[in-house]
Amino acid sequence: MPFPARLLSVDEEVAVETRPHWTYLSAQFGALVVLVVAVICVTVVVDGFPLPAIAVIGAMAGVSAVAAGTRMVRWANTFYLVTDRRIVYWKGVPRWRGIELRLDLVDEIDANQTMWGRLAGVGTLAVRSVVEGHVRNLSFVPRPGAVRHEVYRLLREAERRAIADSLPNEPAEATHDETVAPHLDIPDQIRKLYELVELGILSEAEFEEKKQDLLGRL
After folding, report:
1. Residues linked to residue 4 through DSSP beta bridges, in sequence order
2. pLDDT over 70 (residue 118)
3. 97-to-2, 44, 54, 77 alpha-carbon distances in Å
4. How far apart are CA 58 and CA 46, in angstroms?
5. How far lies 206's CA from each of 72, 195, 200, 209, 213, in Å?
6. In angstroms, rounded to a whole number, what is the distance separating the alpha carbons of residues 127 and 215?
7. d(C-alpha 95, C-alpha 7), whole Å
8. Which of 188-195's residues contact partners 24+ apart within 8 Å by CB, and which partners?
9. How many CB atoms lie within 10 A of CB 12?
10. Are 15 and 82 in contact (CB under 8 A)?
11. Where are the alpha helices (DSSP H) in 82-143?
12. What percent of the chain is helix, strand and coil (3-state, nearest 5)?
């Protein structure tokens, strides 16, 4: 089941959407497998195993199955998201609730992995906020280094957009000036050309030719 679109803002773009790593389920399902194997052994393989002991092991296996099923439901309804606006950790059991941090408030992100975590591709992200240096730890994150890289990429893009928005629109103004200035300067240019005629630098024919050329630009 994907993350509910209704929980996203209008025009919010999702860059990373993932659930907790499969190691989130390993402890409960590992215990369940061990207990199921134990039940099979004491009931089928071993003859004469005490009935109370079988009942206890069976009860433990049932409790473990419920715990594993609950963990599975939580995993299926837990999401880590990185969008162009925020970092989100959402849980959907028993109700939708979440922890989020605006992207512009992110100061630093550390990806922590043990040796086993590097082999399995799982780790913890420590997200530090610019607000009083508060740190939020997100555990069981798949490929935490890649997620951190994506967050930094979004931050750089946001900075570039902010710088671009703060700069004046110089090309548009230059184009406007280029289209208006010639219309304002042509009469002055004609007067200057006529002064050259009076000084004997230009002939009347040359003046008329250049004047017609300038008037054609109006």
Report:
1. none
2. yes
3. 16, 46, 41, 11
4. 15
5. 91, 13, 11, 5, 11
6. 67
7. 13
8. 189/214, 190/214, 190/215
9. 13
10. yes
11. 115-120
12. 55, 20, 20
* DSSP at 15: E
106-109: Cβ within 8 A, 24+ apart = 106/130, 106/151, 106/155, 107/133, 109/148, 109/151, 109/152
Specify the pairing of strand 97-102 against strand 106-112. Answer: unpaired
Half-sphere exposure of 4 (CA within 13 A, CB side): 11
Q: What would you report as the CA-atom Rg of the chain, rounded to the nearest whole angstrom?
A: 36
| pLDDT tens-digit series, residues 130-155 | 877 788 889 999 999 999 999 999 98
Question: What would the mean pLDDT of 154-181 be, rounded to a whole number?
Answer: 65
Alpha helices per DSSP H over 49-138: 51-76, 115-120
Burial class (CB in 10 A: 0-12, 13-18, 19+), 9: exposed
Close Cβ partners of 46 (under 8 Å, ≥ 6 residues apart) = none
Planar angle of CA 118, 124, 126, nearest 5 degrees: 135
And the tokens for 207? 């003046």
Taking residues 54-65, report their average pLDDT: 90
Q: What is the DSSP letter of 4?
A: P
Distance CA 194, CA 44 (A): 118
Distance CA 125, CA 109 (A): 7
At 89, the amino acid letter reads Y
Question: What's the half-sphere exposure (Cβ side, CA atoms, 13 Å) at 14?
Answer: 15
Q: Provide the 8-state DSSP code for 130.
A: S
